[in-house]
Amino acid sequence: MRIIGLAGWSGAGKTTLLAKVIPCLVRRGLRLSTVKHAHHDFDMDRPGKDSHSHRLAGATEVLVGSSNRWALMHELRGLPEPPLAALLAKLSPVDLVIVEGYKAQPHPKLEVFRAANGKPFLHPQDDCIVAIASDMALDDAVLPVIDLNDIEKIAAVLLAESTPLARLLEPRQA
Questions:
Q1: Which listed CATH number (1.20.120.140, 3.30.930.10, 3.40.50.300, 3.40.190.10) goes with 2-42+81-169?
Q2: Sign of CA dihedral 80, 83, 84, 89
Q3: Which residue has the higher pLDDT, 168 or 125?
Q4: How far apart are CA 87 and CA 26, in angstroms?
Q5: What would the pLDDT profile of 22-40 be if each residue is shown by its tens digit?
Q6: 171: alpha, beta or left? (left if phi > 0; alpha if psi -120 to 50)
Q7: N or C: which end of the chain has fewer CB within 10 A?
Q8: What does DSSP say about strands 145-147 and 163-164: parallel, antiparallel, or unpaired?
Q9: Per-domain residue ranges of the chain
Q10: Measured distance CA(43)–CA(45) in Å, rounded
Q11: Is-contact 154 21, C-beta < 8 A?
């Protein structure tokens, strides 16, 4: 299993890019999963559903299964947010995991940059960023720059720059 991330400010187009690049990678024969970081309270469940009632009643985990899919919801109940590595360990094996968000975590990332967003670049402060996907030319960039609409090239960079998950999970040397 290999891992790479997409990092960028809110509104940069990370989710839009993922929706375009995932089919490209699947056509190449890859099995992939994604991990999405949410900076806010989110809910996948709806009031009135049994699983929602189970969570509200105090269940720590609720697993919903059917003939089409299954989903496991885990309530932290005041515990700290788990680190990315702990969440990655819960995934079933695939060829590639693409992480959207978790920009402060030490894994290779493609920076998604839109000039209209009005936000600064991330890469000067993050040595894990390996390339930039942008909607404008960046003549002075010290990293490779890919046109945000060149999905085939972005897919190639994601594959080339991904790292084995085992390397990410190794203890860091001081």
A1: 3.40.50.300
A2: negative
A3: 125
A4: 23
A5: 999 999 999 999 999 886 6
A6: beta
A7: C
A8: unpaired
A9: 2-42+81-169
A10: 5
A11: yes
